[in-house]
Amino acid sequence: MGIIETYKFYFGMGLKDKIRSIIMSKTIDSKNRTIGIEEECIIYDKSDNRLPVNRGNKFSATDLLNMMNSKSNKNGVYSIEPGGQLEWSSPPFSNIHQINSSMNIHKKVLNKIIKKKKLKILDCSVEPVFDPKEIDLIDHLKYQLMDKNMAKVDTLGRWMMRNTASIQINYDFENESELEDMVFIADCIQPVSSYLFSNAPFWNNRAVSNENIRYLIWEKTDKYRCRNLIDHGIVEPKGIVDKYIDFMLNVPGIFGFDKNGDICSVVGTLGERLQYLKKNNCLRDLDIQGALHQIFTNVRLKNLIEVRGADRAPFGYELAPVAFWTGLLTVAEIRDEVLSTILTWNIEERLSWNSTARYLDDSTIGPEGKSYYHWNKWAGELALKGLEKRGLGEEKYFCDYFDIVLTDGPFSLQKQKDFEKKKKSLLESVLA
Hints:
Shape: globular
Radius of gyration: 21 Å
Oligomer: single chain
Number of domains: 1
C-alpha cells in the first residue's frame, strides 16, 4: 500500500479502529519478543530532605535528570515523576540477563552521582515521612493538571504522584489472542504481585503494620482510571482489546495536545475529545497515545502490555517482579496452565481477593476457599517453572527472593520487624 492509500485508509477508519490499530501496531514473532522495564526511585538530599524537584538554589531532581541523560550513552532514558522521583526506562531486551547488565550500568552511573552529591536513595516504594504538601510538584502543565484532577476525584492521588515508586514491566505480544491471555492473567494475579512485592513499611511517619500501603494509595487515587480491569467491567480474556477501548473512551480526560503538540487542558471524556478531533479531521496518533497514557490500571495497553502493580523492590531484588511476570506471561504452556485455573474463578471471588490484597495476611481466604499463601506459592512456582522452560537461567532473579518472602513475609513486614529491633528512625531504616 502506497503513502496516499495508507493515508486514505487510516483517515477512513472509525475512532475505535484507529485506537485498535495503535494498540496492535507492534505485534511481533515470538522469537523476537522483548522486555523493557521502568524503575522509579525516591531520592533525598544530604540533610535527609526530599530532593527538590525544580531547579533553584539547591541541587534538584531536574539537575540530576540532566546529568543522568547526559551520561546514559543510549542505556535507556531518564525522566522525573511529579514529586521528583527518578525514573529509568531501559532499552528493550530479549531476556532478563540483558536487562540486568543494563541495570548495572544504570546503577553505576547513578551511584557515582549519588556519592558525589551526598544524596540518598529510599529503599522502599512509599515516602515514609513527608506529606505531599511538603513536596514540590514538577513544573510541568501535564502534572499540574493531573494534580488538580487527583485532588477532586479521591483522597490519595497526591500521595501517589509525589510519594510512591514502582517497577513497571513492558511486553511485546505475538497476536491478539496472546495479548488477551497475558492481560487477563496479569489482572487476575495482581493480588499475588501486590503481596510478594510489597515494600512500603512506613507511611505518614508511622509503621504501617499489615497495611499494603502502595496498593491502598492506588485504590484511593482515581476510581475512573485506576485499580484492576475487573473493576471496569472487563471480566474475561475474549474481546479484551475492544472492551479496553470502550472503557478508555468513557474515562474523564485530564490533558490533551494542542495543534503544536503542546499540553493543554480538556473537558469531557477521552472519547469526546478524540471524537471532536476526528470530526474536525485533526486526530493524530499523538492524541490517541496521550489518551491511552491517561489510564493507570494495574495492567494497561499502549502499543505493548504494561504490567504496573509491583512496588519498587528492595536493593538487589529489582528484577524479581520482572522475573515473576516473565515466567508467567511469556511461555504459552504456563499461560495455559494458569488460565485453566483462573477461568474457573467467579467475579465475586476475584473482587473479594482484590480487596484482600489491601492487607498483608497470607492466611486470608481467596478463590476456591484456599488461602492467600496457597495462591502466592502456586503463582510463584508456576513463574519459576516458566522461567525454567525459557531455558536461559533466569530463575536466579526470582528464586531466592520468592523463598525469602514465602518464609518471612513481604519486605514491608520484614523491615518493620527490623525497625522495632534496632530502634532507628524511620528514615535511617530505609535510606541507603
